[in-house]
Every structure is written in C-alpha cells, then in structure tokens.
Amino acid sequence: RPYAKFGTWRTQSRQTFPTNRNCGGNSNRRKRAALAFAIGVDLIGMDSYLLPFFGEGFDVIWAPIAMFANFATNGGIIGFGGGLATLAEELAPFTDVIPSVTLTWIVRSVLSGESACRKFVKKKLG
Known about the structure:
Elements: E1 2-5, E2 8-11, H1 25-46, H2 55-74, H3 76-91, H4 100-109, H5 116-125
Antiparallel strand pairs: 1-2
C-alpha cells in the first residue's frame, strides 16, 4: 500500500525495523537462556568435587566439553578465548570453583557495551 512520507509517495515494504522501545524482547530472552546454560555448565564442572576419587578423571573428560560449550554459547574471539581459559581451568587441579563460562558470558554480554539491536536502530533510523 502506498503511503505519504515527507510529501512523496513510496511503496510500503513489509520489512519492519525495531525501535529503541522494542530492542530488548528476544535478545534479553536469549541472553537469559545463555546465562542459564553457562551457569549449568559451570555447576556440572564443579560437581567433580562430589566424587572424591574420580573427580580429576571426570575433569579430563569434561574439559573439552566445557570448552566447546563456552565457545558455542559466547562465539567469536571472546568465546574462543573463554573456551581456552575454560579448558585450562578444568584441567588444572583445585580450580573447579571458578565459573569460567559464566565469567565469559559476563564479558560478552555485560561489558561489551551497547547491544547490536540498538546499533542497528541508530544506524538505520538515525
């Protein structure tokens, strides 16, 4: 359907652009899901203390899984660096209490600055 904008007629496209008001809906839900997953991965890694004699053996098996989970959750260079840190943390003795996947999530989500949605809105809509 045509509509008037600044005195000219244009064809209305079906593409909708997010506004500043609705930037957070799905991205906040995804952030919370990623945080819950990160906390779960860290809790499984800390559970090796519950197995007195098998704990460090479990860490050898769990370390590459946690590294991949950290990279898959956080992605990019932050996820890669966090994955390597998680691998080292899980393989080192007595460091299982460090929530490395959750710390990587904090670095990526909280400290990385403005969300991609808000950057898109500023770029496209002024």
